[in-house]
Amino acid sequence: MKPSDCTTLLVVDDDDTNRMIVSEFLAGHGYCLEEAEDGEHAWRLLREMPERFDAVLLDRMMPGIDGIEVLRRMKGHPAAARIPVILQTAAAAPDQVLEGLREGAFYYLTKPFGPEMLQAVVRTAVRDRLNQRAVVAELERTRDSFQLIDYAKFRFCSLDEARNLAALAAYSLRDAAQTALGLAELMINAVEHGNLGVTYQEKSRLLQSGRWSEEIESPLRDPRYCNRFATLKLERHADQVEFEVTDMGEGFDWHSFLDIHPSRAMDLHGRGIAIARRVCFDSVQYRGCGNTVVATKAL
After folding, report:
1. CA 220 – CA 192 distance, rounded (Å)
2. What Å distances lie between residue 99 and 13, 74, 260, CA to CA?
3. The CATH number of 7-130 is which of 2.40.50.140, 3.40.50.1000, 3.40.50.2300, 3.40.50.300?
């Protein structure tokens, strides 16, 4: 459980001035900031109190334990591995960005950055963390008897239905929390970009303006979309569980979203499919035009 209702960020940077700038840029936005002046201090806080933090703003270049090493250690800690990390650095070469992404930094800030960009990236990371906590909380309220199901098919329309159903279906596996997070990403994508036809550029614009949450509800009431639904099929095999998500959209070019390309590393979204594929499932495969995705995980 999180010990406080405050949205708590851990700011890790060996430069006092940089930590002060982050604090000034985020002042008045409802965040509680804790600071760590080096990687050792940050890792001690994360190891001892992982549930305390909603996101980490992590400097890449630090003496001693640098940001990449902190990321590696977080990946090996079950609770710390789920905390969104925003890697802030002056190193923006594609290979350096890719190294950070591979170690689990799915959010990136290149120095120098302005207040609006920092606020938008933090808002996105915190939103993802809150959604993650909601899924885990739903799992805790759900009975593990779901593991007895061999086959099931569901339909869903809204984002809330997608998250709640993902939490329920994930109990078909013992590693329910991780499965639920990945399944929710695939199902939310089916609603947003599949049934509602929201483009990548439209979502970027709305996230940047901070209006995504309220604006996404409008298409759900639009006569063009209100009768659309997506389906989730779950099938248990001898050695794995298979999840199939299908929407009623026109599909999309999914190939570039299986991994996070460095060219999109600074974007506020577009990482959910890659996270599901790299972290949550053994395989994620899109079929046909892209309106069906199959994810599998070994028993």
Report:
1. 10
2. 19, 15, 11
3. 3.40.50.2300
Q: What pTM was computed for the model?
A: 0.69
We find that the CATH architecture of domain 142-298 is: 2-Layer Sandwich (3.30)
- DSSP E strands, 42-199: 55-59, 85-89, 107-110, 151-156
- CB proximity list for 239: less than 8 A, separation 6 or greater: 298, 299
Nearest in space to 280 (alpha carbons), one of 173, 142, 194: 173
Per-residue pLDDT of the chain (299 residues), as tens digits, is 454 578 999 999 999 999 999 999 999 999 999 999 999 999 999 999 998 999 999 999 999 999 999 999 998 898 898 899 999 877 666 677 777 777 778 788 888 889 999 999 999 899 888 888 887 777 666 655 677 889 999 999 999 999 989 988 998 887 788 899 899 999 999 999 999 999 999 999 888 887 887 778 777 788 888 899 999 999 999 999 999 999 999 999 999 999 887 778 778 888 899 989 988 999 999 999 999 999 999 98
> Which DSSP symbol is given to 49?
-
Question: Both ends of the chain: CA-CA distance in Å?
Answer: 28
**Residue ranges covered by each domain of the chain:** 7-130, 142-298
Q: Give the amino acid at 265.
A: A
